[in-house]
Design brief:
Glutaredoxin, Arc Repressor Mutant, subunit A, globular, about 200 residues, alpha/beta, 8 helices, 5-stranded mixed β-sheet, binds FE2/S2 (inorganic) cluster
Length: about 200
C-alpha cells in the first residue's frame, strides 16, 4: 500500500487513474505474480475507476497474469523470428517438463506463450520472471529448468555468449579501411538505378 501511495504522488491531481499500470504491477508483485478478481476490484476502487477499465488493461498486456503462476514463470516468445529460430522445440520441452501452459507444476513452475518480447535479434527468447534468456538451444533450456529445480542460480542474457545483440565471436570480423571502402563502393544504392535509367 505504501508503494502504491508513493506511485500515485507521481501523477497530477485528478489524473491518478493514469497510474494504473504501475499499480497493477506492484499488486501483482505482492501477490506471487498474479492478479486475482478481488485485487482487480480493489484497484478499481483505489483508483476510482470502473472495474472494466482495470480489466481492459489487465487483459491487454501479457505482463499481467490473471491466473496463479509458479515461483518461476516462463514466458516464451512464439512470434516469427523466435519461431524460425527454434521456439517450437523449446515449447515442446516446456510442455514435456512443466505440463500444459497456464498450469502450475507440482514443483512450482509455469509457462505461457507470448507475442514478441522485443529482443528478436537474440531469438529464441524466454523471459523467466523479470529476466531475459536469449539465443536458447533446447539443451540450454533443459539445463535452466534442471538448475531451477535444484535451486541453482541461472544466468540471464545470451546463451551464445554474445554481448547484448552483438555478433557472436565466430562471425565477428574487424574490417580494414580498404575493405570498408570496397563494400561502400559496391553497395547497392536504392533509387540511383531508377534515376540513371
Ligand atoms: S520475435 Fe521473439 S523477441 Fe521478437
Amino acid at each position: 500500500m505504501l508503494l502504491a501511495k508513493a506511485e500515485l504522488k507521481k501523477y497530477p491531481k485528478g489524473r491518478e487513474g493514469s497510474a494504473i499500470i504501475s499499480i497493477l504491477w506492484i499488486a501483482q508483485k505482492q501477490n506471487k505474480g498474479w492478479l486475482s478478481p478481488d485485487i482487480i476490484d480493489y484497484i478499481a476502487k483505489f483508483l476510482d475507476l470502473p472495474q472494466i477499465r482495470v480489466m481492459e488493461i489487465a487483459t491487454f498486456y501479457s505482463m499481467f497474469n490473471l491466473n496463479p503462476v509458479g515461483t518461476h514463470h516462463f514466458q516464451i516468445c512464439g512470434t516469427t523470428p523466435c519461431m524460425l529460430s527454434g521456439s517450437e522445440n523449446l515449447k515442446s520441452l516446456l510442455r514435456e517438463e512443466i505440463g500444459e501452459q497456464s498450469l502450475v507444476s507440482k514443483d512450482n513452475l509455469s509457462w505461457v506463450e507470448v507475442e514478441c518480447l522485443g529482443a528478436c535479434c537474440n531469438a529464441p527468447v524466454i523471459q523467466i520472471n523479470d529476466d531475459y534468456y536469449e539465443d536458447l538451444a533446447v539443451t540450454d533450456l533443459k539445463n535452466i529448468i534442471d538448475d531451477l529445480r535444484s535451486g541453482k542460480e541461472i544466468k540471464p542474457g545470451s546463451y551464445k555468449d554474445r554481448l547484448a545483440s552483438a555478433p557472436d565471436n565466430k562471425n565477428m570480423k574487424i574490417l580494414t579501411e580498404d575493405e570498408i571502402e570496397e563494400i561502400a563502393k559496391n553497395r547497392n544504392k536504392p533509387g540511383l538505378e531508377a534515376k540513371n535509367a
